[in-house]
Design a protein that fits this description.
Helix content: 40-55%
Strand content: 15-25%
Bound molecules: adenosine-5'-diphosphate
Shape: elongated
CATH architecture of the largest domain: 2-Layer Sandwich
Oligomer: single chain
Distance between the termini: 55 Å
């Protein structure tokens, strides 16, 4: 029991009453039994809480009464009065105190009910808002994934054909540049489609032990040409780390999204454009850092970057799905993904993945 309120107590009496065990001593007994205790001389009572004995004696407390504060059959606390005269608290005084205790009990209970219902109303409002948002998202997701499925096949054909043409050799230089643009833009469109499909979860992951460094290499190879076009220098730092149990496609998708964001952030401003990707071990798994020398993320934008459809990019450049999809993928792998600003400018995105199950 804790002392919540007092009047006229000496400092040492307050100190011994600050916390009291339920069940022990006079007040503790009232709290445990719910029965009023009435005494002529508190100091002489054998049930007095031993640590309080000296303070009660020093303060010369004699007449004492303690009543329970109840509500709906439960004892919530006690209300005690002591006085320095040996006049016994009379029946009327005790009845008044008991009635007061009862009123306090009702007031406390009402306050509790009120704050409880306030909390429930807040919770209900929040759930309702989440439900509306989820409904909207799933409707958009369904629609988008239907369209994405349809677009995916022709995109794959265009990409395949342009690669075949590029590989054939007998192409004029001007046409080669144009073909490269076709291939790049097609793979950009394919990435958006993949993000949409993963967002709508129309993809069954296949997990196996995979090397994070290999995934980084593959993604950087894929993006090398585009990065070079915008004078982005690629720096990699690979420290040996254990393979993680993951879906390679999904991890590459995450890396593509992070590299693409870093690229877009840097392309919009003057050089130097340096993309640093680090891979290394972390307690129980692996860690990938994607660092850029772009403008960084403004503080008011930072809390929203993982929200689906949140983008600060002009239409056509951003769908606002890259980070939200990546976050979903990493969370499903029981890992962590977060973004922060680098002390010297630019943004840093960090992925941490646990080793996970090592045998399938
Ligand atoms: P999108 O790239 O389509 O806008 P994302 O979900 O990938 O969608 O990113 C959301 C937003 O996060 C971006 O619009 C941008 O404002 C911010 N952002 C992401 N990566 C970076 C980065 N490397 N530097 C600065 N801002 C970033």
């Amino acid at each position: 029991m804790r002392l919540r309120s007092e009047r006229g107590m000496s400092a040492h009496l307050r100190e011994v009453n600050e916390t009291l065990p339920v069940g022990a001593g006079l007040i503790g007994k009232v709290a445990a039994t719910g029965e009023t205790v009435l005494l002529d001389s508190a100091a002489d009572d054998p049930h007095l809480f031993p640590p309080a004995k000296r303070a009660v004696k020093t303060d010369d407390i004699r007449g004492f009464v303690c009543v329970p504060i109840r509500s709906r059959g439960r004892v919530l606390g006690t209300l005690s009065l002591g006085r320095q005269t040996s006049d016994r608290f009379n029946e009327l005084e005790v009845a008044l105190l008991e009635a007061t205790g009862h009123q306090i009990g009702i007031a406390l209970d009402n306050a509790k009910l009120y704050s409880e219902s306030q909390r429930q109303i807040e919770e209900l409002k929040l759930t309702q808002a989440q439900l509306i948002r989820a409904e909207k998202l799933s409707a958009v997701g369904e629609l988008a994934s239907g369209v994405a499925h349809e677009i995916n096949n022709p995109l794959t054909t265009i990409l395949g054909q342009s690669h075949l043409l590029l590989a054939s050799g007998d192409i004029k230089e001007g046409a080669r540049d144009r073909l490269n643009i076709i291939a790049e833009e097609t793979s950009r469109a394919a990435r958006i489609v993949q993000n949409l499909l993963m967002f709508a979860r129309h993809y069954t992951p296949e997990r196996r032990p995979c090397s994070l460094a290999d995934q980084v290499r593959r993604v950087l190879e894929l993006k090398a040409y585009q990065l070079r076009q915008d004078d982005v220098e690629i720096r990699t730092e690979f420290t040996p780390c254990p393979p993680v149990y993951a879906d390679e496609n999904q991890i590459q998708q995450v890396l593509l999204n992070l590299v693409q964001n870093a690229h877009q952030a840097m392309a919009r401003q003057a050089p130097p454009h340096i993309l640093t990707v680090r891979v290394g071990p972390v307690d129980g798994g692996g860690r990938i850092e994607v660092l850029d020398t772009g403008p960084g993320i403004p503080p008011d934008v930072l809390p929203k970057i993982f929200d689906p459809f949140f983008t600060t990019k002009p239409p056509g450049d951003g769908s606002g799905l890259g980070l939200s999809v990546s976050y979903g993928i990493i969370s499903e792998h029981s890992g962590r993904l977060w973004g922060e600003n680098r002390p010297d400018g630019g943004a840093a995105f960090i992925v941490e993945l646990p080793v996970g199950k090592t045998t399938s």
